Amino acid sequence: MEIDGEEARLQRKQATYIFLDEPFEIQKETYRGQQYSQIYFARLHLMRALLYSLVPNWKPHLPICTVLELEEGRECVIIGTLYKHMKLKPSILDEYSKERSTTPLVKPHNFMHPDDHLVLEDESGRVKLGGAELLPSAYVTGIVVALHGKETSAGEFLVLDVLDAGLAPQKELPLNSGEDKYVVLVSGLNVGSGTSNPLQFQLLVDHITGHLGDEKEQGIAAEIVHVVIAGNSIEIPRGLLNGQNLASKDQSRLFEPIKELDILLTQIAAGVPLDIMPGPNDPANFSLPQQPLNRCLFPGSATYNTFRSCTNPHCFELDNVRFLGTSGQTIDDLQKYSEANDQLEFMERTLRWRHLAPTAPNTLGCYPFTDRDPFLVESCPHVYFAGNQQKFETRLLKGSDRQLVRLVCIPKFSETGVAVVVSLCIFSGMLRIIKGTGLTQKSQHNFQVCLFFMHHTHFIVAWDRNWGGLKFRSCLALQCFSTMINGVFLMVKQKIIWWSMPILLIFKR
Amino acid sequence: MNRSNGSARKRPPRTPKESWPNKQQATTPTTPVIDDEFLDEDVFLDETLLPEDEESLILRDIEQRQDFASRLAKWARPPLSSAYVSQRQSIMFQQLDIDYVIGDSNRELLPHSSGPAAIIRIFGVTREGHSVCCKVHGFEPYFYISCPQGMGPDDISRFHQILEGRMREANRNSKVPQFVRHIEMVQKRSIMYYQQQKSQPFLKIVVALPTMVASCRGILDRGIQLDGLGMKSFMTYESNVLFALRFMIDCNIVGGNWIEVPVGKYRKTAKTLSYCQLEFDCLYPFAWRYSDIISRHPEGEFSKMAPFRILSFDIECAGRKGHFPEPTHDPVIQVANLVTLQGEKQPFIRNVMTLKSCAPIVGVDVMSFETERDVLLAWRDFIREVDPDVMIGYNICKFDLPYLIERSQTLGIAEFPILGRIRNSRVRVKDTTFSSRQLGTRESKEVTVEGRVQFDLLQVMQRDYKLSSYSLNSVSAHFLSEQKEDVHHSIISDLQNGNAETRRRLAVYCLKDAYLPQRLLDKLMFIFNYVEMARVTGVPISFLLSRGQSIKVLSQLLRKAKQKNLVIPNVKQAGSEQGTYEGATVLEARAGFYEKPIATLDFASLYPSIMMAYNLCYSTLVTPEDARKLNLPPECVNKTPSGETFVKSNLQKGILPEILEELLAARKRAKADLKEAKDPLEKAVLDGRQLALKISANSVYGFTGATVGQLPCIEISSSVTSYGRQMIEHTKKLVEDKFTTVGGYEHNAEVIYGDTDSVMVQFGVPTVEAAMKLGREAADYISGTFIKPIKLEFEKVYYPYLLISKKRYAGLYWTNPEKFDKMDTKGIETVRRDNCLLVKNLVTECLHKILVDRDIPGAVQYVKSTISDLLMNRMDLSLLVITKGLTKTGDDYEVKAAHVELAERMRKRDAATAPNVGDRVPYVIIKAAKGAKAYERSEDPIYVLENNIPIDTHYYLENQISKPLLRIFEPILKNASKELLSGDHTRSISISTPSNSGIMKFAKRQLSCIGCKALISNGTLCSHCKGREAELYCKTVSQVQELEVLFGRLWTQCQECQGSLHQDVLCTSRDCPIFYRRKKAQKDMAEAKLQLDRWNF
Fold first, then answer.
1. Distance (Å, rounded) from C-alpha A150 to C-alpha A136?
2. Closest by Cα among A277, A372, A371 to A330
3. What is the pLDDT along chain A (509 residues), one digit of tens a residue?
4. Exposure of A109 by Cβ count < 10 A (0-12 exposed, 13-18 middle, 19+ buried)?
5. Cβ–Cβ < 8 Å for B921, B893
6. Which of B338, B362, B842, B872 to mutate against chain A (most A CBs within 10 Å)?
7. Are strands A447-452 and A431-437 parallel, antiparallel or unpaired?
8. Could you tell me the pTM of the whole model?
9. Residues of B whose CB is below 8 A from A243
10. Which residues form a coiled coil (chain A) (predicted)?
């Protein structure tokens, strides 16, 4: 680990890494005409076994029956897959069969409607659910639950109580070694898109690799043991991919962002172990689980053994701390078809339902598995993250069985300039955010650069367009910042270097 | 199971024709088709009842089935109140069906007659939901003949004797004591021709039984020998009126109205013959001289509907592989039933009867039986217990009901077909040939279920809507936006032979088939519309579906004639002897694309108005002979442009104008009430009524023009069209004379097109608003020159307007100057079923671009890119599928047709899944050897998908899309054909689909570079393309992405339709827009995955 400067060399910390992506890998499986019923079947089968074991504690006096065995008026427990009947849910049939209307269809971001209702289904049949206990707005299609209630004369099942599987058992957290070790979580780099700022990304890289800041800052950088990029790293111009052969000009337009990303990733991989997950916009397959980005996209970084292209969802352990997360599609889809106070609540629900992506395959693309459902959460993670969210949010979730889970929403880096740093001793305020330079369209004039450490340092720098307006607020250590206003200021150790357009970036090694 | 593969089963072989001679069609000579057969058929009560020995068998059967009956008992109708039981309450009910039966005349009510007599039975429902069977005695069939000159009242008894003698000769086997009951002389007048004298003597001949009307008419037609008069044949009057209708007319009862029988006027039948709760006898009021039966005019309280019970049902049969189920072989395995009370939203009974065990279904009463006999009998018991008033379903009249009956015959269950309301009376099955101008000739079976109205939604759909497919699936998709799973009939037997779970699957499917007709009925307000139609026209509800248009007009005519003391002659149906006449005028269309607003002036109900304005009627027509003789003053007559003479209304008001006036006035009233109405049910009634009135008014003209109708009168219809022509010409002239720059207007107006009852005018002004102002002005000005009630109305402006030719145009339709209402197209909307979807999509999109977006280059570009996509094989296969119905087997076709040949070939491949007669055959045209005939190049789309067979894209370009395209573009582009159909876009290198046929069989497959297709020995890319990995990979992966999105959405949609997540999708509905895509997505996905896997080196 090379650190700039003449001070004593800092050693980057290490952590033992266990790769746990196998369930999400699609190796020999192919499309042989299988349908989606099997994955639902597998899900129901596994979840039911689990719920069966919970019901005796929950409602010891009640019999468990199938939808078929329901009798009018008799209280019982039924277990099955929920199906949410939604009025506004877009249907592919409409796209094909409806006459073209003169007014374009309005596409809402959320397809909820007051008339939506839930249906419980098992292999034997379906029953419409009623009662105030089970609000359709909080549930989506694909969840397996146990319901206590009775059949009404109208043929509905009046729900009196609901039991979901709850948090999965959790591996005991390792004893705190007293050492601070950090994992950087970042998503939505969107290299090549209009919102991405190359300098901002470079700053992040420099921060991680320890090329920025003073000794103290570098000391922190040295404590970063792992970097995870949770999806949407590249934005490639889709318009070009229309099946035609590309002109050489377009070839480079397509290739440029990929190359740029590779260069930056190479810098990280040279110093820190790096996991990259595919996201919905990446050049990877669409259906969950998304398979690792092909190594041919990263000719530079792929040569490092610290570089690892992973699946989405992604699961791993660092020093026995279990991480699990997605690039965010699962949560985004829940948001379209259900309601919650914040994104963390959606995340919490998926853990309680013990299913990472309940809406797959119904509204979320998914591989038609035949014998398993890889999205079931068998072991509760210690850190559960979702990439590409609107803003950074975090909460500690406590389970009934003393489980503790750190939920993290990773914002889109290209829009917010925020990367999240999680300490491996996750429960002692060990979360911090690196916020890079946030040059957004809105705040071209007065914008803030902040490095925000939850328990270490805390400084905010505000730069004005006019150099004279530079203000330091609670500035503890102004070591090195760079930002850009109508050109580029790069400030290294209080030296200001000015470049006019175009942007050139020079890196000192 | 009937509609297992959808379209086919539920569709009769013939596609319905355009409506009968309406105004548009009069241009072509009307061909003689017998509209209806008006024949009564006497049914003897004794014959319908089961013989004594069988009756005891049934009694035994009923005892045995006590258990089951008690299970059904909870669904019985509400019990009678004590007022009803003790006959202290007058009975008020809405009648739904009226028929008659021949029985012994009632001794108590009619002490003076004996022998067999017709008994009218009125079935209905009271407000409380009690079923009613009202038997009316003493009404006798009759008709009129004109009294021969010189015959006085004294000669009648002699005439009676002679006629009785002839009748006896003709009906030797009959046991009727007296054939001709009596003959009386009455003063009436024939409806035909203007006559100055008020009335003439007619003889009213009353016969014993309804069928004797026809036989007596035959005798009189042929002529009888009369003393002193010699051999004389007679013209008969009103001898073609069905007995039940005759009764309704004479009692002033209209279809579906309320009838009241006051206390004391009815007697409870001692030995009930029906299952109705209230069965009673009463006398035909004529004999009593005051009303025993009060017919209520459908207004206010009496416009409401009784809570009658509607049963929607569907059956499934287990067919053998490769055969359509036949009642002689294939068992009925399931019957699903839903019963709804009229006015309620949800059915109150849902059940399914299955053969062999079936897993329960929530909210549905599943009844399983071990033998087919038990299933059938259970259904019979169910019908009896629930006692539905209306039976609905999809194709029940042609499939489900006849199948059940024939199946019970095969199984020898004599006690099954007692489904009607008459105790121990079997359902009658009759082979009928129904032909109507409107609907073509159909052979079918008619099942008479006494006292229950059959309402087959398929028939209704075919009657009322022009759709590209009449399968239940596509009809529900169209009206309910709901697809249903379509299980191929070859799978049905497999499901039946599985376990309780698979049979449950089938039951769910069967229930859905029973549910959809009910939904359609509710959604399209059929009950309201048809009941109102029955009320307006006065015919029983059952006539509306089973008979043609003319009986509706005839019924109104008869009612009116009765009021006016007129009689209607029974004109012999003598083929098309009467000549044809000139139809409506179509002004020459000045084809072009008009970018200025075009105002449209419409005549409001033109033909009815003409008939009213000029007093055109049978009774006002003056024969040329009479015209000379009578020497009528010219101010009292109208000479029509076609040369006929009609008297004006001051001399004689015509009946047809009067009927029309009443209809239109009633419509006006209904529309006004509709505006006032708040209650949705009341609104539905009123809306149904105004619609019925409109249709009725318009069909009067057609009635006079139906050359082989009940009472054709070419003089009237040709006069109507000739006036119509005159008015169009007149309008054109006035517009072009008045709206000129000379007359002080900005521009010279130009009539660019006129058709039957509308004239399109280009006033030359640039804005819609200005065109509307001028349009209104013109309409008012020209209306002033016409005789009332003919009125020219300004309704809409087309802007822009694409006029292609006569009857073919498209335009944006504006009724207010702010925003257009819709895109209106006529004649170019390619809804024809034998076109592929591509044509329809292309035409719609082009019109949209031209008219709405005003982007002609864009439209051209769109056409070009579509053609290019087509030629480069990038077209979605489902857009190219052509569908045709297979009506008979290959040998019966004279000319070889593509779909027939294909069906033969498919049968050779796999007889089990090949289409059968009655199925619709989808196919695509594939590339084949040069010179191969089109019919040899048809192929099953699924087979094409599975085997990668190349499509003959040029066939589609030349035979499918070029004509409709050129039609649209010719008025717009100079060299449309050259511009669109040739050029760079047609020279695109076509990407050939790999083929396993022809020379490709000998080709060896070798690995090629993904980038440049160069042959390589191993790996993914050739040495030249190394370095382009990222780019090429992105390409491959983006294809995979697209397919994955499609795959997920398509297959989850099918799960949605199917209504189950845990079971595989079985649906094979080829009508479904995503059926082929789904199949293709699956196959493409597998291939794309393999391609992607090549990168994992």
1. 18
2. A277
3. 444 444 556 788 888 888 888 888 887 777 777 888 888 888 888 888 888 888 888 888 888 888 777 777 888 888 889 888 887 777 777 766 555 544 444 555 677 788 888 888 887 778 888 888 888 888 888 888 888 888 887 778 888 888 888 888 888 877 666 677 788 888 888 888 777 777 777 777 877 887 766 676 677 778 888 889 988 888 877 666 655 556 667 777 777 888 888 888 888 888 888 899 998 888 888 888 888 888 888 888 888 888 888 998 999 988 888 889 999 888 888 888 888 888 888 899 898 888 988 888 888 888 888 888 888 888 888 889 999 888 888 888 888 888 888 888 888 888 777 788 887 765 544 444 454 443 333 322 222 232 322 222 222 232 323 333 333 332 222 333 333 332 333 333 333 333 222 222 222 22
4. exposed
5. no
6. B362
7. antiparallel
8. 0.70
9. 874, 1035, 1039
10. none
At A283, give phi and psi (nearest 5°). -75, 70
**Range with top average pLDDT, A238-252, A425-439, B327-341, B1062-1076:** B327-341
User: Measured in Å, how far apart are chain B's first and last C-alpha atoms?
Assistant: 52
Q: Where are the alpha helices (DSSP H) in B369-498?
A: 372-386, 401-411, 457-464, 472-480, 489-497
Q: Which residues of A touch B1086 (CB under 8 A)?
A: 30-33
**Residue B716 parent element (H or E):** helix B714-738
B582's tokens: 């000139």
- Can you give A130-167 as a three-state secondary structure string? ECCCCCHHHCCCCCEEEEEEEECCCCCEEEEEEECCCC
- Whole-angstrom CA distances from A207 to A200, A264, A420, A438 are 11, 12, 12, 15
Do residues A459 and A475 make contact, with C-beta atoms less than 8 angstroms apart?
A: yes
Which residue, among B540, B397, B428, has the nearest Cα to B43 in the 3D structure? B428
CA angle B357, B359, B365 (to 5 degrees): 95
Question: Residues of B534-561 as b/e, b for ≥16 C-beta within 10 angstroms?
Answer: bbbbbbbbbbbebbbbbbbbbbbbbbbb
- In angstroms, the CA B617 to CA B679 distance is 40
Distance CA B877, CA B948 (A): 11
CB distance from B1041 to chain A under 8 Å? Answer: yes
Using CA coordinates, name the residue in chain A closest to B364: A155
Report residue B497 CA to chain centroid gap. 37
A-chain CB neighbours of B1085 within 8 Å are 31
Distance from CA of B575 to the nearest CA of A (A): 44
Of the candidates A91, A298, A281, the residue with the CA atom closest to the CA atom of residue A189: A281
Sheet order of strands, A182-186 included: A307-309, A274-277, A224-230, A182-186, A418-423, A431-437, A447-452, A458-463, A471-473
d(CA B139, CA B119): 7
Predicted complex: ipTM over 0.85 = no
Chain B residue numbers with beta carbons less than 8 Å from the beta carbon of A36 are: 1051-1052, 1055, 1061
What span, in angstroms and rounded, lies between the C-alpha atoms of B251 and B538? 11
CA distance B693 to B685: 12
| Cα–Cα distance for residue pair B245/B239, rounded to 1 Å | 12
Between strands B131-137 and B938-939, the pairing is unpaired
Residues of chain B with Cβ-Cβ distance to A102 below 8 Å are: 820, 822-823, 848, 852
Closest partner residue to A155 among B363, B852, B1041, by Cβ?
A: B363
Is the CB of A368 inside 8 Å of chain B's CB atoms? yes
Please spell the DSSP secondary structure of B513-570, one letter per residue. Answer: HHHHHHHHHHHTTHHHHHHHHHHHH---HHHHHHS-SHHHHHHHHHHHHHHTTEE-B-
Can you give the pLDDT at residue B16?
35
Which one, of B622, B789, B617, B631, lies nearest residue B720 by Cα?
A: B617
Torsion over CA of B1055, B1056, B1059 and B1063, rounded to 10 degrees?
A: 10
